[in-house]
């Protein structure tokens, strides 16, 4: 009968050891779990920070791309669309006209006496004339219209909802406004001038063809103005 008692005591002792071992192991597992959770949270926070940083950099890059695209379409001297920018606006306008059966007019305008001004007073004087002309044209158009510089001494205007009669009248107004400009260089009063050609826009228009037609009409107009003084200089 004594042997069973010893066996029972041994089992009880073994059970106490196992229970104590389990008690000691449990806190370690909890701590490890907490460390893993903390590390996981830190990883998530780090990933979120990286994503925010990348989004910020992407937004800055997109803004920079937009700025460069705008600069590529803008004349650096006059701050109006250059040929590339104007042609893009013209193509968009014609696409709209075709879809909604709208109309308009394209006017190509050439400064008549810019070369003599450059030759007599330098390109800085010519730049001043161009700036004044750009300002004058911008003031003469509506917010929906577009004025651009095709290059050198040639400008173009995209005007919405004009009949042929209205377009011709508007071209005459532009010419007169530029003819009325007066400049003083080296003590001499100088006037420039302008010749305008028109191409009507509608559902059958094409951008390239419209520019060619307006340009050709402009040269016809310029030929008609050749009897006018090439450049007027009056000593002050």
Structural overview:
With 236 residues, the chain is of the alpha+beta class. The protein has helices spanning 2-72, 83-100, 114-121, 123-140, 164-179, 207-224; strands spanning 104-111, 146-151, 154-160, 182-185, 188-191, 194-201, 232-235. It has a 4-stranded antiparallel beta sheet with strand order 2-3-1-6, with helices on both faces. Helix 3 packs antiparallel against helix 4. Residues 1-19 have a biased composition (Basic residues). InterPro entries: DGC-Regulatory_Protein, GGDEF_dom, Nucleotide_cyclase, Rev_trsase/Diguanyl_cyclase. This is GGDEF domain-containing protein.
Molecular shape: elongated
Strand tally:
7
The helix count comes to 6
Q: Please mark out the parts with pLDDT under 50 across 5 or more consecutive residues, or reply none.
A: 230-236
Mean pLDDT: 84
Assembly category: single chain
Structural class assignment:
alpha+beta
- Widest β-sheet, arrangement of strands: 2-3-1-6
- In angstroms, what separates the terminal alpha carbons? 142 Å
Rg, alpha carbons: 39 Å
Kindly state the percentage of residues in helix: 55-70%
